[in-house]
Amino acid sequence: MQSADDADLQEPLSRISRAGKHLLSLISDVHDLSKIEAGHIQLVPERIELPNFVDDVVLTVDDLAAREGNDLVIEHWSALPTLWTDPLRLRQVLITLLSNSCKFTAQGRICLTAAPSSPTGS
């Protein structure tokens, strides 16, 4: 059973937890940048199913979008081909882009579209 004092602490503790996770993410990004500059980063490519991958990334960013009053719209073809990539790095890029979009947009619409392009890039 939760006391009233526990309920009062829940939101500030949640805020501290989110801030700690964000700080850890920033430190990890700085570490990755230093590894890239030193030429020590290793890519570990593997095959991923892009629709499932994108849906998973959205679950990570969805709360942030809602807190800022944003609509997070994801458009992807269910028939996207399998992708050969480093899923950790791609996840970092997508989460960073979507998180920044959420932080700098208030009560707006943030859209991520994943669709195949033609071989000519158009």
Helix content: 55-70%
Q: Largest sheet, if any?
A: 2 strands, antiparallel
By helix and strand content, what is the structural category?
alpha+beta
CATH second-level architecture of the largest domain: 2-Layer Sandwich
Query: How many domains make up the 3D coordinates?
Result: 2
Q: What overall geometry do the principal axes of the alpha carbons give?
A: globular
Mean pLDDT across the residues is 82
Strand content: 15-25%
Total number of strands: 4
Helix-strand blueprint:
Blueprint: H1 4-37, E1 46-49, H2 50-67, E2 71-76, E3 82-85, H3 87-103, E4 109-114
Parallel strand pairs: 2-4
Antiparallel strand pairs: 1-3
Task: Walk me through this protein's architecture.
The protein is of the alpha+beta class and 122 residues long. It folds into two domains: 1-41; 42-122, Histidine kinase-like ATPase, C-terminal domain (Heat Shock Protein 90, 2-Layer Sandwich), CATH 3.30.565.10. Helices cover 57% and strands 16% of the residues. The protein is built from three helices and four strands, in the order αβαββαβ. It has helices at residues 4-37, 50-67, 87-103, and strands at 46-49, 71-76, 82-85, 109-114. The strands form two sheets. The protein has a two-stranded antiparallel ribbon. Strands 2-4 form a two-stranded parallel ribbon. The protein starts with a helix and ends in an 8-residue tail after the last strand.
